[in-house]
Amino acid sequence: MNHEFRELRLSQLDRNLSVARSLPPRPSGGWIAAVREALGLSLAEIGQLARVPRQNVQKFERAEATDRITLATLRRVADAMGCDLLYVLVPKSGSFAELAEQPTREQAARDVKSVVHTMALEDQKPENTSQLIEDEAQRRLNRRKTR
Question: Which pTM value belongs to this model?
Fold first, then answer.
């Protein structure tokens, strides 16, 4: 993927990150059950709207609550309840840009620590290892951007 497109994609994803992080977590019983109950609909009514037996709706609710439902099924049930399905991937911490830089930073840290270790054996260990790691990570990230 070309660098400009990748940077644009990372920027777009990061702009939407605060909205995604503000979404509530999935209810313990799943969204299907929570929305169905909030709308006052029975399993049979959802089944009728989705054109499946009531027992299937109950299976869908259990499958969602245990992370075993497919997106297609979740979308079908959401549609039957008059809802859209939205899903999002969010970095566990930081931004998408930071997540993309992480492998380069980790490799730079390993390489610098290896050199620092060798220098320590020769009684030449530098005092600013953290800064050396950051400088090397930045050098590698900048080099990657110019490709």
Answer: 0.72
pLDDT tens profile 102-122: 999 999 999 999 998 888 888
Full set of structural domains in the chain with CATH = 24-80 (1.10.260), 96-146 (no CATH)
Residue 103: how many other CB atoms lie within 10 Å = 9
Nearest to residue 3, comparing CAs of 100, 116, 106, 126? Answer: 100
Instruction: Summarize pLDDT for 125-135 with one digit per residue, the tens.
Output: 888 899 999 99
Tokens of 9: 């994609």
Q: Are 106 and 140 in contact (CB under 8 A)?
A: no
Q: Is 56 exposed, middle or buried (CB count within 10 Å of its CB: 0-12, 13-18, 19+)? A: middle
- What is the tally of helices (H) and strands (E) in the chain? 8, 0
Pairwise CA distance, residues 83 & 13, whole Å: 24
Compute the C-alpha angle 119/125/129, nearest 5°.
Answer: 110
**Among 117, 144, 141, which Cα is nearest to 129's?**
117
Long-range contacts of residues 62-65, Cβ cutoff 8 Å, at least 24 apart: 64/30, 64/31, 64/32, 64/33, 65/28, 65/29, 65/30, 65/33
